[in-house]
Structure formats: structure tokens, C-alpha cells
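User: Continuing from earlier, I have the next pair ready.

Assistant: Great, send them over.

User: Here they are, in order.

Assistant: Folding the first of the pair now:
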Amino acid sequence: MLIPIKILNPKAAPPAQAYGDGDAGADLASVEELTLKPGERALVATGIAVAIPKGYAGFVQPRSGLAARFGITLTNSPGLIDSNYRGEIKIIIQNTGADDFRIGVGDRIAQLVILPIEHADFESVDELPSSDRGSGGFGSSGKKADGRW
């Protein structure tokens, strides 16, 4: 699949797969320099825009190495890029680690995964079909028979 990209900033790098076509995600790099203190978050520019084909969406996800080594994550992970969006991709990055984290120009800060999506129509009903799970959520599958976690 060919995804057209537009370079909006001369410091920008196109999305790149580190190991080739076996990679599900393409790395996104920063065009800014900044330091995130522990607990801080920032909106970081990538300097690129993309044209994702209709029937697909882009999902911006954290890089596992940054998460494991430094506690760097994306606040709204996965970030969603709709096929009709043509603006700059920006990353909401957060430092959950104990130390300052420096981001430099060209640093890979997230990854973009392109996936097919299904358009859904919604219909208001009086009752939903039943399921084994029912309305249980937010940890309901972790409860023991006696109600403990």
C-alpha cells in the first residue's frame, strides 16, 4: 500500500520501518527539541501529513523500547488518524518515568500502524442482545468467586 506523505517541515523525516516490510509500524520522528520532566506531557510535531486511503485508519502507538527503558508513553494511545485528515501528525507524549527525558530533532518518538476499518452505522434499540459478559467491565474478569480481586 502506498501512503502519500507531505513534508511540512524541512527537519521532518518520512515514516520508516526499521526492519522492512515485516514491521507492522513505521517510526515517527520529532521535528522539535524539548525535555519532559517526570509526569509532564507535550504535543510534539512530526512535520508530516499523510493521506490515508478510505477504508483505512492510522493508529499512532508508543514505541516499546521508550516505554520499557524510560517510561515514555502516549497519553491517548492509540492516537487515531482518520482517512480524511490532512493536517500535521502530532504526538501527545508523556514521561511516566523518574528522570527527565530529552527529545531531539529526528528522535523516533512513536509508530504509525495502518489498519483496515469497517464503517459502522448505529441504531437506537430498547434492548441489547445478551452476552456471557453482560455489563461487567473495568476489571470484572479479575474478580474471584468470593468477590475478591
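And the other member of the pair:
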Amino acid sequence: MEIVLYKPEIAGNVGSCIRLSANTGLPLNLIKPFGFNFQENKIRRAGLDYHDLASVSIFQNWNIFYEQNKNNNIAMLSTKGSKNIWDTNLKNYDFFIFGPESVGLPEEILNLNHDMLAIPMNDSSRSINLANSVSIVSYEFLRQNYKK
């Protein structure tokens, strides 16, 4: 299972996801363009000294990432998702795609022939912070596949 951040906009969220990757062993894929300078202090601060321990790949654009991975089992995370992550066997997926903080995944990506999953939340809520969403899905995947 790998995490994919499509056009992330906030350095602190990416730093937190880098730290999560280091602590869980789940690879992180970042798709450009970013809404920040990748060398920003906020990434280093949020990621602390975990950058060397994380598995991070950077793709120049969506087309390059998708061409390499379109035949894998992909889940799109969206508030528009019809399947709840709690009711889904997350082991069936190779990649979990998360969209930019301000707008989520664009329709042209959501319309690709892949499952669209949602994180349960209150009906009156608009969305969950990107780094928190990645953490929720990552740990639900790990919980479902936990072996003593």
C-alpha cells in the first residue's frame, strides 16, 4: 500500500506525511506541481529528522505517475466517495490517492475507472485535514492487516 499526494499545497502537511511514512513504512508518492517550495522549513520542521527514514518518490506530473501505475488497484479518497473505508478491505488497493487541500481531486481524475472511498465524518463537515486523512487511512490499512 502506498500513499499518493496529488499537487499538495501545504508544506506542513507534506512534512507530516513524510514523518508518517517513516514511522509506518508505507511509501509516499508526491505529484507536482506543489503549492510551496519543497525545501521550505515547514517541511523539515513537520518531518523532523525522519526524511532519511521515509520512502518518498516525486513525480513531475499526474500523467507520469498514472502511466506507470494505472494497472494497479487504485483508490481515490474523496468526500464524494460512495464506499466507506471502514466497510472496505483496504488490502485490495496498491495506491491511495489524496487531492490538494483546497479543492480535492479534480473530476478528470475522479472519473477514471477506480474506486472512490470516503472517510466517515459528520454530514455538516466539509473535509478533514490532508495529513489527518492520510493518517486515518494509513492506520486503518495497518489495523486491517495487523499480524501479531
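Worth noting for the second one:
The domain at 2-144 is CATH 3.40.1280.10 (Alpha/beta knot). DSSP finds five helices and seven strands in the chain.
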